[in-house]
Amino acid sequence: MKPRGGIPPRERGGGQLPPSAKLVYKVLKYNTALTQQELAEETMLPKRTVRFALTRLKEAGLVEGRISIRDARQSVYSLTEDGKQVHAAPIEN
To answer: What is the dihedral sign for C-alpha 38, 58, 67, 29?
Structure first.
């Protein structure tokens, strides 16, 4: 199945990405890197839901987290190279 709208329809392993993961993916697509708190504010989703979405996206290999330089207690999330490839894939109807 080909990506529609730049969002992967299925993660690796065949599972369906939940809507929250698709929203978090879209937000990261337009922002270089965000913390979980910033993602919660941007998406207006609860922190717990953002955490779940990030876990699913990391399992799919689309998002990576690294320690924040500003605050070592936080992680900063961004798209992986695979995540950027999905972003760059042409949209087919």
So the answer is: negative
